[in-house]
C-alpha cells in the first residue's frame, strides 16, 4: 500500500461542499449515525484514555447510531438508538471543526470541516508518527482495500485530484477492524446508564453537544472492559471528571475556528499570508505541535 498524500487531505476533510457527487460516505454498516460528520475516526478504548490522561479530551466526540433492522434499541429524547441489552452503543472519534483549508487541488482556501489535528497550512497531521496517532488513521485505507470498497484516495483521483493510491495491495499486518465481533468494549461501547442521557441525545443530534455531554461518553469508553458490557464505575467517573476539565489548545482552537468560520464551502476572505498568520495565531501559538512539511519526507 503506497499513497501520495501531499496536498490532498481527502480523508481528513469534509469535501462534500466542493464536490457532492464525488465525495463518498464513511458509512461502514447498516446503522445510520446520529450525526453528519464525515470520516469520523473511531478510537480504541486505550486511545481515548490516552487523550483523556494527556488533557486532550476536548478533542473527542461521541457518535451514536440509529438501529438497523432487528437491532435492539432504546428510545431517548424521541430518538431510537441502536443498543445492546438496552444500552445505547457508541463510538468515540475526533472532532471536526471548520478550518480554512485548500485540499484536493483547490485554487483557494475554503471553510471546510476538518480533523482537529490537520494543519490547514501544510495539510499534514500534527500527531502523525506519535503515540497519539490513531490506529484507524495509520492503517487507512488498508481495511477498505481488503473489502474491495472504494477508498477516499480513489474518490479524490476521480474528482481530478491526481494520482493518490499508488499501490492498492493492503498490508499483511492490518489490525482488527474497528467494527466486528471483537469490537465491543474495545472500539464500540455501550453507555451503562441510558436514563442519564435525557437531553444529552437531543443536543448531540442537533450538533449542540456540550463539554459535559462529550465527557460522559469519554468516561464510559475509558471505563469499558474489552469483550463485554462491563464498565468499571470508578475508572469511568475519574475519566469523566478529567475529560470535563480539559482545556487544551485543541478546544480553544475549535472555539476560535467555529466563531470565525463562514458557511460550509465558502471561500476564505484572506490572502495566503493572512491565512497562514491566522493559523499560527489560532493553533501554533496556542501550543499545537508542528508538522515537518512535505519537503522533508522521503
From TrEMBL:
Region annotation (Disordered) ranges: 277-298
Pfam families: DUF7531 (PF24375)
InterPro entries: DUF7531
Protein name: Uncharacterized protein
